[in-house]
Fold:
Amino acid sequence: MRSIFKSALLAALPIEIVNFFVIGYPTAGGSLTSATQNAAIALEWDLLHLPGLIAIDRILLLRGHPHICSLIFLLAGYIDTALLLAALIFAVRLALRPLRKLSSPMKHAH
Structure:
């Protein structure tokens, strides 16, 4: 289980960096992708960064500090992306386990 989380944390970092810095905040006006964004990207971004959106909405002190808000969005997205990747890696490993058993050399020796 630890290797799953390590793999997910490592894979999530470049994904979230691209997601955050290239895509930007697509549901806000003036984002980098506002001219070419589509609803799926905006929905994906909002869902991955939902804990950050909720925190910034609930904690009034954060609203006045855009750099802190950006950091919270980045961390929330990173954690959610890592959890999503961990679940995906776990599901793939679980699905591949029966295939490994079927192709085991010991199975053919009997």
Remarks:
- The CA atoms of residues 12 and 79 lie 8 Å apart.
- The chain has a mean pLDDT of 77.
- Helices lie at 2-23, 39-48, 50-58, 60-63, 66-102, 105-109.
- The longest helix spans residues 66-102.
